Amino acid sequence: MSETIFSKIIRGDIPCFKVYEDDKVLAFLDVGPLSRGHTLVIPKEPAVTLDALSDESAAAIGRVLPRLCRAVKKATGCADYNVLQNNGAPAHQAVFHVHFHIIPKPNDAEGLGVDWPVQKLDMATAPALANAIKDALAAP
Fold first, then answer.
1. Residue 38 catalytic?
2. Which residues contact 34 (CB under 8 A, 6 or more apart)?
3. What is the pTM of this model?
4. In which domain, by residue range, is 42 found?
5. Does some domain include residue 120?
6. Out of 19, 64, 104, 116, which residue is the most buried by the measure of CB atoms under 10 Å away?
7. Angle at CA of residue 62, ends 49 and 74, nearest 5°
């Protein structure tokens, strides 16, 4: 994995407004927030995409993410929020180090705007797709 701004933040080479840190996870305010309280949650383990992250680091994020969401809600007074995680440039990933966004949604004008181009599940191919995913889970 190549050097990223998050690698530099983890090392302390670039300052951040830290809100949480343990031996596996760092959380800090986004410097380009979509709304007040927009927080980034990153593993200290270098991994570009979520599927490349170790189970241990993923579990560490999973343990702290709900607590961080509660803290952002309390600090901002905003009841609604999005948790966003992108993998790969076509999926809008801009920093190639796994990261989660906690984005408060105080109103229609602030926070994350989402276009959700719903499609129909192809019922003819869905069983084969579900089985392929199950098989992939069972494989080493």
1. no
2. 101, 103, 110, 111, 112
3. 0.93
4. 5-114
5. no
6. 104
7. 115
Q: Is residue 46 part of a domain?
A: yes
Number of domains in the chain: 1
CA torsion, points 113, 5, 74, 115, in degrees to nearest 10? Answer: 10
The residues pairing with 41 across neighbouring beta strands, listed in sequence order, are 27, 100
CATH number at residue 85: 3.30.428.10
List, for residues 25-34, the tens digit of each pLDDT value: 999 999 999 9
Secondary structure of residue 86 in the 3-state scheme: coil
Q: Which of 38, 92, 97, 99 is catalytic?
A: 99
Residue 136 lies in a domain: no
pLDDT tens digits for 19-75? 999 999 999 999 999 999 999 999 999 999 999 999 999 999 999 999 999 999 999
Which two three-digit tokens encode residue 127? 């069983």
